[in-house]
Write a structure and sequence with these properties.
642 residues, mainly beta, 22-stranded antiparallel beta barrel, 5 helices, globular
Length: 642
């Protein structure tokens, strides 16, 4: 687990309300008039009009979900010149990402203080194969063909099942549907540390067919010995409107990455010229959406994903191995609108996961079996879920959900969630409260003896999560301010004891804190955002803090357009009061402030020039103890659209 901080536009949902059971549904008020909806949707998204998918698995106005959701849209991605998923996750309240300081190194995700394998990552709602540590290799996921990212904070197991104590990161891809003429873009970038990046993308529609395709290549020599990073990526979506009520989508993606790993053989920062990791991922996923009638929509999804990794001299004392993780996923979902103000979502989920590791070395201290498969397992998970979304009075919504998961290798789990939100009509204040249960089965790394795990970890990690808060638009909805309180009580949390284990399941842990956000864009010429997170994350059994969770995180950015064609912005992230290390070596690590400068100029209607400076002040720090982060780097390039 390693730290890296992520950025993104913060649109924190806030709320405060009591949770009640919703069977007074049929007393709903009249729906909004169609012309009023059209007028709202024509304006820029606000806390009242922004539509999200992840919180309810249906298109729902964000304030109605009773959940905390941050959206990082395509405009934000391009203006901030984000290239990889961890870059875009910067400045999301409550979220910290940890890496080893080199491009492409493994990222851990700490969402509201939970462990890295307790946050689910999906692409268009489809789970992707995790590695043996239960992580999703987001460090090699590009933003090619990505329309937006939605980060759902808080328990989400009532819809998504396991690995959701922290929440869900949903990467939503682009489509060519509805475009009147094809769009093509070409970009090139070069900069510090021998960095180059090229991409080519196209999307459009012709008759009943539409497409979206993007190819990219990224190369970086890095700043340390053997810290190079090469990444080739293909992302595509093809669609066909087979009938007015029947649509077919096919999502395809592939990447290949070669990542240098300084320090991998010895740990704690030694430059190893030989250690590196090759990884490859590909997936194919068809989906059919059938609008059976005006009130009933059915969706059927299948996804096959395959992740492979070959490591050279990567383990302590050296090591060569090959890892494979594959995923078959089926989901049927039915959304039925019982009334204009009440919808019911039901679904069935089946996931079959397999993983293996083959050692290429002769027998040794860390490989007593020699050349053999020391990990070779498969597991199956099926589930049923049911959700109700109801507006029982004008502006007052109650959402409830329940799900049962059955595992071939673990205990079954039943989880539930209830949330409520209220739009105060006099002030347009949004209040919301949310309570839910969640769980996470132990990752292969945590239960495989060959990986220093414990095969008796069959009890899932469990949590009870609560949040409530408030969000207030102001200045005619050009700005908003929000405050959210959260608390997670966790049982059976798996923690690590140095130097090589053992792992143990502790009785109790707790994460709690506050997330505050402010945004203001009075015109198209300038804007400002700021976020603050206070986090208290503790192992209550041992009486110590959970490591790599900063107690205070402050972030934000300000941008201005002196002239219509020129945009310049500066962003900052400041982490305060962190601990790292294990056992007796656990101690405070340095605070750090990282600045990021971006600029772009629209040279012609079809040509844009852009540049940025990372770590503007040259701050010396480590996101993970012993692995220094990259120093100042400057990058620039151009984008052509036609």
């Amino acid at each position: 687990m390693f730290i890296h901080i992520s950025r993104g536009r913060s649109l924190t949902l806030a709320s405060l309300s009591l949770i009640l059971s919703p069977l007074s549904l049929l007393s709903a008020a009249p729906t909004q008039k169609p012309d009023e909806k059209a007028k709202e949707s024509a304006s820029a998204p606000t806390p009242l009009t922004e539509v999200v998918i992840t919180a309810t698995k249906t298109e729902t106005e964000r304030w109605r979900t009773a959940s905390s959701v941050t959206v990082i849209d395509r405009q934000r991605i391009e203006e901030q010149q984000y290239k990889l998923v961890p870059d875009a996750l910067r400045q999301v309240p409550g979220l910290t990402i940890a890496d080893r300081g080199t491009p492409g190194s493994v990222n851990g995700i700490f969402l509201r203080g939970t462990n890295s394998d307790q946050t689910l990552v999906v692409i268009d709602g489809r789970p992707v194969p995790a590695n043996l540590a239960g992580l999703y290799n987001i460090e090699t996921m590009t933003l090619d063909n990505v329309e937006r990212i939605e980060v759902l904070r808080g328990p989400a197991a009532s819809l998504y099942g396991g690995k959701t104590l922290g929440g869900v990161i949903n990467i939503i891809t682009r489509s060519g549907k509805g475009l009147k003429k094809p769009e093509t873009s070409l970009s090139f970038e070069a900069g510090s540390y021998g960095s180059f990046r090229e991409s080519l993308g196209t999307r459009g529609a012709a008759g009943i067919y539409d497409w979206s395709l993007e190819l990219s290549r990224q190369d970086t020599q890095g700043y340390r010995i053997n810290s190079q990073f090469q990444l080739s990526n293909v992302a595509a979506k093809f669609g066909a409107q087979l009938a007015d009520t029947l649509r077919f989508d096919l999502d395809l993606r592939y990447y290949n990455a070669d990542v240098g790993a300084p320090g991998a053989a010895t740990g704690f920062g030694a430059n190893d010229p030989d250690a590196h990791v090759l990884s490859e991922y590909w997936s194919i996923s068809p989906r059919i959406v059938w609008e059976t009638n005006d009130r009933w929509t059915q969706t059927l999804t299948y996804q096959f994903g395959n992740f492979r990794q070959a490591s050279t001299n990567f383990n302590f004392g050296g090591g060569n191995n090959r890892i494979t993780s594959r995923n078959h996923f089926f989901e049927y979902q039915s959304v039925f609108k019982a009334t204009d103000k009440w919808s019911i979502t039901a679904g069935a989920w089946l996931q079959d996961i397999g993983y293996s590791r083959y050692n290429d070395d002769t027998p040794g201290l860390f490989n007593p079996g020699g050349k053999s498969y020391d990990v070779d397992q498969a597991e199956t998970n099926w589930a049923l879920y049911l959700q109700s979304q109801a507006e029982i009075l004008t502006g007052w919504n109650i959402n409830t959900g329940i799900r049962h998961d059955s595992y071939s290798d673990f205990q079954d789990a039943t989880t539930w969630r209830v949330g409520t939100s209220w739009l105060v009509p006099w002030t347009q204040t949004i209040l919301h409260a949310n309570y839910g249960t969640a769980f996470a089965p132990a990752s292969p790394q945590n239960r495989e003896a060959a990986l220093f795990g414990d095969p008796t970890f069959l009890k899932p990690e469990k949590s009870k999560g609560l949040e409530f808060g408030i969000e207030q638009p102001f200045a005619n909805k050009k700005g908003s301010v929000s405050l959210t309180y959260f608390r997670n009580s966790i049982e059976n949390l798996i923690v690590y004891l140095p130097p090589f284990g053992p792992l143990q399941q502790i009785n109790n842990a707790r994460t709690s804190g506050l997330e505050a956000a402010f945004s203001y864009q009075p015109s198209t010429r300038y804007g400002f955002t700021a976020q603050y997170t206070y986090l208290d994350a503790n192992d209550l059994t041992a009486g110590v803090r959970l490591v790599r969770r900063p107690r205070h995180t402050v972030s934000g950015d300000v941008w201005v357009k002196p002239v219509e064609k020129f945009r310049i912005g500066i962003g900052a992230i400041y982490l305060i009061d962190r601990e790292d290390g294990f056992g007796a070596a656990q101690a405070n690590v340095e605070d750090y402030l990282r600045l990021r400068l971006t600029a772009s100029y629209q040279l012609t209607p079809n040509v844009e020039l852009f540049a940025r400076v990372e770590n503007l002040l040259g701050e010396k720090y480590s996101e993970v103890l012993g692995y220094p982060a990259m120093r100042t780097g400057a990058y620039g390039g151009f984008r052509i659209r036609f």
